[in-house]
Amino acid sequence: MKSYWIRPESGKTAIELGDSPAPEPGPGQILVRMRAAGLNRGELIVGHSVKVGGAAKAAGAEGAGEVAALGTGVSGLKTGDRVMGRCSGAFAEFALMDAREAIVVPKNLSWEEAACIPLVFCVVHDMLIAQGRLKAGEWLLVTGISAGVGVAALQTGKALGANVIGTSGSQEKLDKLKPLGLDLGIRTRAADFADAVMKATSGKGANLVVNNVGGSVFAETIRALAYEGRHATVGYVDGVLKSEIDLDALHTKRLTLFGVSNRLRNAEQRAVTVRGFTADILPFIAAGKIRPLIDRVYPFAELPAAKDYMESNAHLGKIAVRMD
Fold first, then answer.
1. What are the structural domain ranges in the chain?
2. Inter-CA distances, 80 with 22, 104, 286, Å
3. Cα(321)–Cα(2) distance, rounded to whole angstroms?
4. pTM surpassing 0.70?
5. What does the alpha-carbon distance between residue 120 and residue 188 come to, in Å, rounded to a whole number?
6. Cα separation of 34 and 96, whole Å?
7. I want to staple 286 with a disulfide (CB 3.0 to 4.6 A). Which of 16, 106, 164, 236 is the partner?
8. Interval 19-39: pLDDT, tens
9. Which regions of the chain are under pLDDT 50?
């Protein structure tokens, strides 16, 4: 089968196409005939997903397709079912998926839309619902809101009844997010937005912050938090991995700081999040109240071009690859 591999190269990552045998599903796994896959910035960053000096690894982390074969012990699914989920090596004609992470695709979704749901919306469930405890009427602040996780956080936050503030360096992108319910867009790439957040929230601050940007804005997000506010660190596209912590603010405002990552979680821990997403967010998607925002769809042969486009930071929402 045709499959893409990702490898480190001079501080960056490179994509290469190769041939390999189709995998066989083991116990608890399903083999999926891939129809589409979603791009994710994390796997393109050396040191985040690909190790410096390490071997190439199968590219792709989420996708959608038809069940082609079942491993032993799998129940509740049959060949031909339309499924979506996290899976290593999604940029291939076939990929293996842990049956616990396989989600039946709602009938109203295209392959490309389904492929762009599993990773970002499970992350959003983790940080907004499971850990973030976001409630209707609260204020959610998302830095770098135009990214895939940021847009999904906006959509889910609004579905939960929250008010949403987002930052972005592009006014055009902020304007395009207003129809999705963005209450306040702040055009900035700098750490200078706390005052605007305080003004919008009548001096109270944001109840939950989702920091997609990284250490360069961490101190500012702390300043923007409300009493008993919660702070989720989910990305560091700025490459800044350290920042000062205002201990007085942490102490007096009774803040909660937490990280959102699947890197060290085991399969059952990831499956718990999938079940939470299926119960709490998937109904909004199936009802059409949330629809994945896809910027562009590339054919399978043009995955390197899709990678270049993602790294240009020109996209809004997700980028998908279609297997023809």
1. 2-117+292-322, 121-259
2. 17, 11, 20
3. 14
4. yes
5. 23
6. 10
7. 106
8. 999 999 999 999 999 999 999
9. 47
- Return the half-sphere exposure (C-beta side, CA atoms, 13 A cut-off) of residue 205: 19
Residue among 143, 193, 148, 192 at smallest CA distance from 164 = 143
Homologous superfamily of domain range 2-117+292-322: Medium-chain alcohol dehydrogenases, catalytic domain (3.90.180.10)
Give 244-260 as a DSSP string.
Answer: ---HHHHHHTT-EEEE-
Q: What is the pLDDT of residues 89-122, one digit of tens each?
A: 999 999 999 999 999 999 999 999 999 999 999 9
**Distance from C-alpha of 114 to C-alpha of 307, rounded to nearest angstrom:** 19
Beginning with the edge strand found earlier in the chain, give each strand of the sheet holding 163-168 in spatial order: 184-187, 163-168, 139-143, 206-211, 225-233, 256-259
The distance of Cα 44 from the centroid of its chain, to the nearest Å, equals 14
For the record, the structure tokens of 133 come out as: 């405890």
DSSP H or E segment with residue 183: none
Q: Token pair of 316, please?
A: 């809004």
**Nearest Cα residue to 317 out of 225, 179, 184, 204:** 179
